[in-house]
Amino acid sequence: MSYLHSIGQYFIMIRGIFERFTKRSVLKELIFKEIDELIIGSLGIVAFLSFFIGGVVALQTALNLNNPLIPKELIAFAARQSIILEFSPTFISIIMAGKVGSFITSSIGSMRVTEQIDALEVMGINSLNYLIFPKIIAMLTYPFVIAISMFLGIVGAYVSAVFGGFVGADTFITGLQDDFEGYHVFYAFFKTFLFAMILATIPSFHGYYMTGGSLEVGKASTTSFVWTSVVIIITNYVVTQLLLS
Amino acid sequence: MIEIKDLHKSFGEEHILKGLNFVFETGKTNLVIGQSGSGKSVLLKCMLGLFTPEEGTIEYDGKPYSSFDEGQKRELRQEIGMLFQGGALFDSMTVEENVMFPLRMFTRKKRKELLERVQEVLERVNLQDAGKKLPSEISGGMQKRVAIARAIVNKPKYLFCDEPNSGLDPHTATVIDNLIHELTVEYDITTVVITHDMNSLLEIGENIAFLKDGKLAWKGDKSQIFKTEDETVTNFVYSSDLFKKVKIAQQQGL
How far is A116 from chain B (nearest CA, A)? Predict the structure, then answer.
């Protein structure tokens, strides 16, 4: 029953976010601040992970290609497909659930504990709109992060495969272009958009409705990470079934 | 003036406010005192519109809150200044930005005018040099003064203070009490202070409501509270050793 209650409360929260809007000039500032904190602040770790994991994907494929009948182009093809379809949109989103999600839960949770949310409400401000709407808008730029991740993942794959001596540059580029389907990129960005909404709202929900003190803020951050990851994984499965099966 | 008439509020089976009646007067510091669990905080939240009472009315200058539409409620909230127990300053904003916040949200003035008003209230609470600091860089007493500045910057008609002295040393607590009282007179506002602090009672208790089990057990002012024979009040007031000794000294004519 408590899960049903939470799901209901989550959708009531979503409705509340789009009521009684905060003054436009204030919202504009908040959106830029959120883009800086949530998106720009995550670029470093996303770039680092994408480059090295892209490299490892190519390396693993190359090391396991023992059959001389399988063309070497497969290294680039496999790297491209795994990076575009799953690694960048899904696994980077799970990493972001840890980084951005925990940040959102703990910052909103701390505001709840220290009565800052009550202060907003007493002033007649819709705290849901003030706190969560700018995060949702900021997260609309999240697909750009994933585009950067895809690009750097493929660069990492190129570097490890070509400079590691597993395949020539021309062969790698040929493999990268083999059987390319634009629809796969659409699929990747469509689910990235859904993950962005999940990343903005589920951690906000856990922070906004938390009760207790600073210890509970930590617990809420952990719970938020778990639930955000679970919802991302389930959404990924459903979207893949619907769009690729 | 805020008038509470026959106010009832329950949470499930628990009946917290049981027909409370009281008038909070304009231009006076109105204190609500009582033991933990007596319903003080619930009363405050009902007055702020955060809780909806089951029965009774809360009238702001003769207009019942329950008759207000959403727009009127929002307008009323802009006329309310609130000092929270912990200050509730926004951590990510400087002192200046915190104080400017209500003005930015509800007025269309230019930044220069906003800054002038902010500087004016910061000077009023004696914090003119702290504008650029973050709340984490100033003391608890200064944080309370910033919160007072934020509460009064929009020239409210009603000021609510929830335990304004909690966590402060006696000297700073007196400074805060006096500041609240001075501002009440200066702006001619209706101030409601929820407190446990007996020093506040002595300093600024012009109109006191003593709550017990969700009901008004006694009302009066600071001069009357030490003379009353009402046992529920004397048990509360003289629960501190210091006040017991003061009473004994008074009785002995010392």
Answer: 5
pTM, entire model: 0.88
- Count Cα neighbours of A170 within 13 Å in the Cβ-side half-sphere: 0
DSSP type of residue A90: I
Q: How far apart are CA A108 and CA A207, in angstroms?
A: 5
Is residue A6 domain-resident?
A: no
Q: What is the ipTM of this complex?
A: 0.85
Q: Report yes or no on A155 lying in a domain.
A: yes
Domain contains A11: no
SS3 content of chain A, % helix, strand, coil (to 5): 85, 0, 15
Q: Specify the 3-state DSSP secondary structure of B80.
A: strand
pLDDT in tens, A12-70: 999 999 998 999 999 999 999 999 999 999 999 999 999 999 999 999 999 998 788 88
- Exposure of A148 by Cβ count < 10 A (0-12 exposed, 13-18 middle, 19+ buried)? middle
Tell which of B82, B108, B162, B163 to mutate to test the A interface (max A CBs under 10 Å): B82
Of A110, A119, A125, the CB nearest to B82: A119
Q: Is residue A32 part of a domain?
A: yes
The pairing of beta strand B80-83 with beta strand B158-162: parallel
